[in-house]
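Predict the assembly for these two chains.
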Amino acid sequence: MGARIMPASIPDSESLSSGPSVAGLDPSDWQRAERRVSDYLRAMGISDPQEIERLLDQVRQRAAIRAAAAPLEDPVEAAIEEAHSLLDQWLIAELGLEGDADRLCAARAAVLNGAVPGWSARWAGFASDSLAPAILAAHLPATPEPAPLNMEPNRIDLLFHRLGHRFLASICRVLCRSSLGGGSPGVRS
Amino acid sequence: MSSLPGSFAGLGRHFHRPIYFSLVTITTLWTMSLLTAAIQDGGITPLELVLLILYAILMLWINASFWTAALGFVRLLRHQNDADTFGEAAPASPDESDGPFKTALVMPVYNEDPERVFAGLRAMYQSLVETGRHQGFEIFILSDTRDPDTWVREEWEWRRWAQELGHPARIFYRNRVENTARKSGNLAEFCRRWGGRYRYMIVLDADSIMCGTTLVEMVRRMEADRRLALIQVPPVPVNRSSLFARMLQFAGSLYGRMFAAGLAYWQQDTANFWGHNAIIRVRPFAQHCGLPQLPGREPFGGDILSHDFVEAALLARAGWKVRLADDLGGSYEEIPPTLIDYAKRDRRWCQGNLQHTRLILARHFKSLSRIHFAMGVMSYLASPLWLLFLIATGVEAYFRSLTVPVYFFGNNVLPVWPESYAVEMATVLWVTLTMLFLPKLLALILLAVKRDLAPRFGGLARATISVVIESLLSVLLAPVLMLFQSKFVAAILLRTTVGWPTQERGDHQTGFAEAFGAHAVHTLIAAVVGVVTYVYVPDFFWWFTPVLAGLALSIPVSMITSRTSLGLLARRAGLFLTPAESDEPRVLRLLDDNLAASQPTPQTTGRDLWSWAVVEPSAYALHASLLPDENPSRRRRHALEGIIFKLQDEGPQSLNTAEKRALLSHRDGLYELHTQLWAGAEPPVSVQRLN
C-alpha cells in the first residue's frame, strides 16, 4: 500500500472558492459547485485536504468536458454526479467490475462504510498498491448465492366450489342444452 | 428386534385416537342427555331445540379441550423426569452421516421493532455458539417491512452484526420488493431462492426465542426420522410484565404443558404447525406447501392467511409426518401485553381461521387435518355461539316466566304441582363449569405430586392462589373476549377484510381514553341487558351476573390488568410465577443483555432514518447495495421524478409511507434523489456516518 500523506489542515469552503474556473461555466457557479463537492467528499469520510484537492481537480475536469458537450442545467448537481461517477469508475477499474452493478454497489458500500483503510488515498491517486483484495474482503454479502428450489402452488379441491360448478353446469346443460365448457373445478393459482 | 414392552407401547399408539375421540363423544352425549332431561317438559319447543344444538356444539368443543388436558395430565403424571419439558434439551450431535448440511433460522418480519428482532436473534445465535454446533446454522432475516424508517434500521442492525461476525457470512438479510401473499409468500420466496442451500429451516416469529440446545435437538430429531417433515415445539409465553400478560404467561406455563402433552397424545404423526418455533424439512415443504389462492374475494377467498394449518395439512396429505414435541423445552414467545392488544391479535387471526371453513371438506386432506381446521374455526366461532346460547337461554327463561302454573286440571281434586327442573339445570351448569375448570385443578394436582416443580411456580400455596385469581379474572375477561370475537366474526361474515397491522409487542399500559373507546359498548350492553333481565326475568338476572359483571367492569379491568406495576407487584409476592421467571433460562438472559447493550439509532440530526439513508453517503451506499439490480423503466422513472418534485416543493412531511418507500426501493430513484439533495440550495445538514 502506498504511503498515506497526512493532512496539514482540512480545506474549508472559503479556501476552495479561489480555485481555477471551468470552461463553459460561470465562475461563481463553479465555486458553488466546488464547495458542495468538497462537502460531499468530506461526508464520504475523506478528511485529507490534498486528497480532496486532487479529487476536486478530477471532478472539475470531468465537469468541464461535460459542459463543453452541452450546457449544464445545474452545475452543482452535475458536479455531484461527477464525483459519484468518479468513485464508481475508480471502483470499476480497481476491481475489474465492468457491467456488474451489484458488485459495484457492494464495493461502494464497503469503502464508504470505512471497512477499507486508505481507500481515499488510493482513489485520489496517492497510493499505488491495489486495494482490490481489501475491498473484496470487506464486502459483506446480504444474501448467499442463489440455490433455487421449485415451489409451485398446490392444488386444493374445495368440495362445495367444485359441486357448485358442477351444479351450475348441469343446470346450464338442461336449460340451455349447452355446456359451460371446460370450466376447471377446484383451485389453482 | 424390539422388546416386548416396546411392542406393546407401539401397539398402544393405535388406541390413542380411539380413546380420545370416544371420551369426547361419550361425554358430549352424556352432557346433552342432562340438558335434554332438564328442558324436555312436555316435548321440545323449537327454541329448546336450538338451545340443545348450540349446547351440543359448545360441549363438544369444551369436552375436546377437557380431554386433551386430562390425557395430558395423565401423561405428565406418568412422566418421571420433567427436565426436558421445562429445561433445555440435552445437547446432541446431529447425524451427519450423509454429509454436512445447513439449517436456516428464518425470521419473517413485518414492521417489527428492529432492536428487539436483532437482540432476539443474537441471543439465539449466542446460545447456539455455546453448544459448539453453530457452524451448521445460518440466520436469515426475511423482511417484508414496508415502513421506510424501520427498513433502514433493519439494514443498519444487520450490517452492524454481520460486521461483528465477519467471514464466513452467517447472517443474511433481504427486504422483499413486493410482499405478495404476506408471511406464507415471504417463506415461499425464501424457499424458491435459497431453499436448495438448506436441509432444514427453523421458522421463527419476530418475538420467538429458542435456546441453542433445543435448536440442535430439533435437527437431531429430524435426522433420526427421514419421514418427519415438521416438528412443532410449543412456545411458552415469557417476558411481559403487565398483570394481564403475567396471568397469561402463568396459565400458558402451567396449563399449556398439559394441553401440549394431550395434543401430542392424540395427534401423533398428524400434528399441526403453529406458524413459528418449528423445524421444517425444506424440500418436501417446497414441493407440497406452495399455497394456491382460494377462489373468490376476501375475506374467504384470496391469499390463505393462516397458512400454517394448511401447510401442515398439505405435508400430511403427501404422507409426511408432522409432530408436536411436547417434551422439548427452550421454546419461547412473547404475547400481547394488554387485553386490547390481545383482541387486536385475535382480529387478525380470526379471518385466517374462518377462512379454513372452506378447507374442512376439501378433498384428499387427512381426517385429522380436517379436525385441526375445524378446531381453528371453532376457537373463534365458539364466541358467537356462546352469545347465541346466552340469548336463547334468556329468551327461554322469559317465556317460562310467562307461564302461569295450573294446579287444578281435569278431574284431579288435589293440586298438581308443576315439575321443577332446577336440580337438572343446576347439574348441567355444574358439569359445564367442571369441564371448564377441572384442567386448572389437574394442573395443581400435578404440582402437588411433582414436588420439584412447585417451587418453579412459586410454591404450591402461591400457585393455588394464582390459579384462583387467574380463574376469577378469566371469568371477568371471558365475556369481553366473547363480544370482541363475536364482533370480529360478524364483521368477517359481512365481508369486511382485515388489514395486516403490526403487532404491539412491548409492554405498554391502557389509558382511559383507549379503554373507553374499546369497552364503552360492552359497558352499555351490560347496563341495558342487566336492566332488561332484572325487570323481565329476575331469576335469570342472578344467573347472568358473572357475564354482566365482566362487561360492566370491562373498562377498569382492562386498564388495571394492563398495569406493569401490578404485574411486578404480583411477581414480588410470588404470584403468577413461571419457571422462566423463577429460573430465567440463559437465552432469555442473553436477550435482556442484548437489549440493554443495543446501540441507539444513528444520530440523524432531526432527519428521519429514511431521509438519512438517502443523504448520508455511507448509509446511501449500504442501502443501494441491498437493493435488487433492475432495469429502470421510463414509467417508473417518471413516477419517481414526480415524488422527488413533491419532496422538493412540499417537504418530506408531504410524502406518505408508500411514496417514501418508492423512493427507497430502486437504485435509480435513490441515486437521483441523493444527487439532487446534495445539489440543493442548502447543503444537507451534517449527519452521522454509518461507521
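Residues 609-678 of chain B form one domain. The beta strands of chain B are 103-109, 137-143, 171-175, 200-203, 209-210, 228-232, 236-237, 278-281, 321-324, 331-333.
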